[in-house]
Amino acid sequence: MVSRGSVTSSEITIADLRAVPHFAADVADRVWRAWWKPKGVPLEHVTDLARENLGSGPVPVALVAHRGPTFMGTASVIASDMEERPHFTPWVAAVWVDEMFRRQGIGGTIVSHAARAAFAAGADTVYLCAVPAKRPFYQRLGWSLHERDVGGHGLDVFTRKSI
Ligand SMILES: CC(C)(COP(=O)(O)OP(=O)(O)OC[C@H]1O[C@@H](n2cnc3c(N)ncnc32)[C@H](O)[C@@H]1OP(=O)(O)O)[C@@H](O)C(=O)NCCC(=O)NCCS
Q1: Is the CB of 33 under 6 A from ligand 1?
Q2: Residues forming beta bridges with residue 91, ordered by sequence position
Q3: Is pLDDT above 70 for 9?
Q4: What's the chain's Rg over C-alpha atoms?
Q5: Is residue 10 predicted with pLDDT exceeding 90?
Q6: What's the CA-to-centroid distance between 14 and ligand 1, angstroms?
Q7: Where in this chain does the record put each N-acetyltransferase domain (predicted)?
Q8: What is the pLDDT of the chain when averaged over all its residues?
């Protein structure tokens, strides 16, 4: 299971949400705005999902990038992220960095921490799906393109192996 401690780099901390539960509302807010609000799903539903990351199991896990009290970004490890690929598990998902903090390496760092959290939870392969526009970003981070054009949104599926 992922360490409940935190890793600090240049004053930016990547922490398990369980160590910084006061950021749960920020995680829910960003994930809701990016992926659920456009589908008409109420914020309360995503708030409940965010709280699942505070449980004692190895998955789900939410990570938070923050500088002191300032929320910067988040990524999660969840059991399932694509109904077309129910046998793939776990997934790095809900990768988000607040706009003002982008292009500083935080997104790459938090995705890598999330993959390590999945491996620490016992996975030897971790999955991720993304729109094709994000392909260079994930490939540069060491993710392998496993499949293209999956599902109704034509997503890429990536894998990363534990080493
Ligand atoms: C995708 C996302 C998480 C990236 O976050 P980020 O913090 O900007 O990520 P990074 O800084 O690690 O990398 C982003 C780019 O900045 C570049 N970069 C990293 N550090 C940099 C620096 N110090 N100076 C300039 N550029 C830098 C990276 O090379 C990368 O380039 P690319 O876009 O050509 O791949 C962010 O844009 C986001 O939240 N988008 C909206 C939600 C989303 O699309 N999530 C992904 C769903 S699959």
Answers
A1: no
A2: 78, 127
A3: no
A4: 15
A5: no
A6: 16
A7: 15-163
A8: 94
Instruction: Find the CATH number of the domain harbouring 94.
Output: 3.40.630.30
Residue 132 inside a domain? The answer is no
Residue with the nearest Cα to atom 22 of ligand 1? 104
Range of the domain at 26: 6-123
Instruction: Classify residue 154: in a domain, yes or no.
Output: no
Q: What are phi and psi of 58, to 5 degrees?
A: -70, -25
What pLDDT does residue 8 have? 61
Question: What's the number of domains the chain is made of?
Answer: 1
Q: Looking at the domain assignment, is residue 77 inside a domain?
A: yes
Instruction: Give the span between the Cα atoms of 149 and 128, in whole angstroms.
Output: 13
Ligand 1 near 135 CB (within 6 A)? no
What's the whole-number mean pLDDT along residues 40-67? 95
What is the reported pLDDT for 163?
Answer: 77
Q: CA-CA distance, 126 to 96, in Å (whole number)?
A: 18
